[in-house]
Amino acid sequence: DARVTQTPRHKVTEMGQEVTMRCQPILGHNTVFWYRQTMMQGLELLAYFRNRAPLDDSGMPKDRFSAEMPDATLATLKIQPSEPRDSAVYFCASGYQSLPRSNEKLFFGSGTQLSVL
Amino acid sequence: QQQVKQSPQSLIVQKGGISIINCAYENTAFDYFPWYQQFPGKGPALLIAIRPDVSEKKEGRFTISFNKSAKQFSLHIMDSQPGDSATYFCAASKDRGSTLGRLYFGRGTQLTVWP
Lengths: 117, 115
Fold this sequence. Notes:
The structure holds 2 protein chains of 2 kinds. In chain A, about 0% of the residues lie in helices and about 55% in strands. In chain A, a hairpin with a 2-residue loop joins strand 7 and strand 8.
């Protein structure tokens, strides 16, 4: 059963430390998203890629966050330095953009629960 | 600024009843309106979606009603079951027909179905 795999599932770190979250999209998917979920803001887009090229990272604080796709099977989200307000669940999602559009579907991973103390 | 407004925040329904969740949007450029279901500890999962060229879409017990002129859409869950207890998110997107564009989510509705 194909699924989006995120690691780690849980991360507790101290303020100022670097955090790296990884995502393995479903094989063959060409579009990858990073969303963040908090009680205060809900689900919000941080960045997304198509064919490994960044399309929109307007939701990401550029001074501390970075998102990359080193290859088609790996997406990373880094926070350096981390702050307590970064505590959230970070979701990766992937899909394959195709025609007809009715064949497209977005699949979410189970998320990385980040706590910054 | 919340691009998609969702209500109610929480909903309690008896087994067998109808659950109704409402969403409203302002941006007329939105051309794709999905609903996602999320269980604790899991990511959102696509439940059902609609485009603005139709007023209703039904899949099993789940129906989306879409009112383009009012810029509102709603999810109806018929014969609600305890297994439907989850958080439901409406969303909207504008990516020239693609369903894989940036999603603007509502704040979510926590549904509890009592047996």
